[in-house]
Specification:
Elements lengths: L3 E8 L2 H13 L5 E14 L2 E15 L3 H11 L7 E5 L5 H10 L8
Antiparallel strand pairs: 1-3, 1-4, 2-3
Length: 111
């Protein structure tokens, strides 16, 4: 059974966050994307603590589209190891959850 997911990604600039959002939505890999920021991030990287200003992208998708979404994000992302984390959506407005599934259905190859 296909499950709705919320996917979280960080990017080093608003422009990169917009590239991620555009690629995901245009490719129907996500029904929508929201960009927030700048945010302050503190994290371990290559043995030391780093602090950076980043932008957060939240995407709504389904488990059926997750692998393709991850590949699309990696194709436009500048980080060696971008944060791409998917969490299940366990509830919500039924019409909205249906909308996510409808907007992320893989295009039909029938012609």
């Amino acid at each position: 059974m296909t499950q709705n997911l919320e996917v979280h990604v960080t990017a080093g600039s608003r422009e990169e966050a917009e590239k991620v959002a555009q690629a995901a939505v245009e490719g129907r890999l996500a029904a929508c994307a929201q960009i927030s920021g700048p945010i302050a991030s503190t994290y371990w990287w290559q043995g030391k603590v780093e602090k950076d200003e980043e932008f957060s992208v939240v995407l709504k998708t389904t488990s059926a589209r997750l692998d393709d979404l991850i590949a699309a994000i990696k194709a436009v992302h500048s980080y060696d190891t971008p944060e791409i984390v998917a969490v299940p959506i366990v509830g919500g407005l039924g019409d909205y959850l249906t909308w996510i599934k409808e907007e992320t259905e893989a295009p039909s190859s029938a012609g």
